[in-house]
Amino acid sequence: MSSNAKTYQMGSSAGRRKYLASWSVIYSSMNEDKAMKKQARNRVNRKLSESDGTPVKRTGAVSGKFVTETFEYDRGRQVTVYVPPDPTKAIVFAGDGQGISKWGRLLVQADVRSTMIVGVHGLTDETLRLHEYSPGFEPDRFAAHERFFVEDVRRWTESRFGVAPPTERTAVFGVSGGGELALALGLRHPHVYGAVFCASPGGGYKPPGLMPGPLPRTYLVAGTQEPFFLGNARRWADALRDAGADVVMNERAGSHGGAFWREEFPLMVAWAFGR
Fold first, then answer.
1. Pick from 134, 12, 119: which is nearest to 67 by CA?
2. How far apart are CA 128 and CA 141, in angstroms?
3. Which of 88, 148, 208, 209 sees the fewest Cβ atoms within 10 Å?
4. Residues of the chain with pLDDT under 70
5. Rounded Cα–Cα distance for residues 66 and 104 (Å)
6. CA distance 123 to 102
């Protein structure tokens, strides 16, 4: 193990603090902009239709191409959806959705297939965020969030927007700790997510010794100036390739939380869903 990896080894409290601190920087970089804050202030109440069948508090807001809903999960968890201007042909479900949902504008500029982003908001408490995103720390917490993300949010998306693309046009995406979530959910639910998009994954969730099957197509990216996260991405790429998965592994100039995450996102969508 390299000295850099030792810095983030989760066996010590100091290592955990440094690991969580790195995620805190990423989380703070994805705060909602003024438009999203104005959207939240203008929230209106709406009644949930009987056909939805999902535990949602109808306190959503619609503003242009964004829809935000508050669910009952965890005493009120928001989901922000980017609705593309043309009929939806593909969907990306993402962690840290309060920031990543805004990346939908990048897809329009890139002229890729019309893709909806369903962004489940992440927690501001870094420890609890880790417990939801990485399956090895608090299994019960991870499992509860997994059910919410995979079952409730997906069912609500189909009911609310009337879209349910097939597996091959459904992806799960995450950055840093959210990258661990994307990998974990992709491996555990390949019948739901046909592709995994993962940027700079953390090290709490590691490739299993025996890969499950079938495996989703996986696109990984990491920066040359973030050696710990680059090593994690390479480790996953090697393990998935060895297991026979279709894998892309890109290394980009940049550090953790850099612009290359946003720049790579349209390339991921184009690779998985076409143009």
1. 119
2. 9
3. 209
4. 1-64
5. 10
6. 17
Total domains in the chain come to 1
What integer pLDDT is reported at residue 219 of this predicted model? 98
DSSP E strands in the chain: the ranges are 56-63, 66-71, 77-82, 90-94, 115-120, 170-175, 195-199, 217-223, 247-252
* CA distances in angstroms from 101 to 37, 49, 120, 122, 241, listed in the order given: 14, 25, 9, 12, 29
133: CATH: 3.40.50.1820
The residue range of the domain holding 96 is: 3-273
User: Which pLDDT value is given to residue 65?
Assistant: 85
Spatial contact of 218 and 195, defined as CB atoms under 8 Å apart: yes
What percent helix, strand, coil does the chain show, rounded to 5? 45, 20, 35
Distance between CA atoms of residues 63 and 163, nearest Å: 19
Rounded CA gap, 138 and 257, in Å? Answer: 25
Give the number of other Cβ atoms within 10 Å of residue 41's Cβ: 8
Q: What is the pTM of this model?
A: 0.80
Q: Residue 43's closest CA among 69, 72, 76, 74?
A: 69
